[in-house]
Amino acid sequence: SHEVARARAALLEPGHTAAGATTLTLRSPVDGVVLERLRESSAVVAAGTPLLVVGDPANLEIVSDYLSTDAVNIKPGMRVEIERWGGSDGLAGIVRRVEPHGFLKVSALGVEEQRVNVVSDFAEARERWAALGDGYRVETHVVTWSSDSVLQVPLGALFRHGEDWATFAIRGGRARVVELGIGHRGADAAEVVSGLEEGDRVVLHPPDNVSDGTRVEERGD
Description:
By secondary structure, the chain is mainly β.
């Protein structure tokens, strides 16, 4: 219907006001509010020139770019944690689409990365995120796996030991190399499948002078 109205408008002569100025009523094809004004003052424009950006703030979606190596593990329907959006509490979302096309993006450190856009919807009532608008910044974390009971170790305690992962576990006041079976990995910790038990203490960020059998002493924070 909007295309029909646009065609009719192109065939009509603009009306004339009493002052002799020409006027033409332009109607938005969608309901919403003006998000951006692309023309700041009067000017002659060609047919089809964008004048305003109109959208519905109640119908927002979240577009987050992820490394392509992470995006392959993201599927529609997965839970999304929305943080640092400006509110005091986090928000919940759900993945709607993982775009099939990646793109090159240069990180803040100058590293070229292949990124993929992941589109998510809010999973909470509009009142919770009503303050957000088009183009606002948020941080998202997609939950690709979760468990109610996980034995985990900080990533800073892990190091490569041959083909396996290992850590320095404290045994009788000495650091002992313990090879680990590692499962899922997060941003700060990794799931321990084998090698450690609940309550074991490990050396965090071990220096180069620590080896198997080195005497260690725990220090306070």
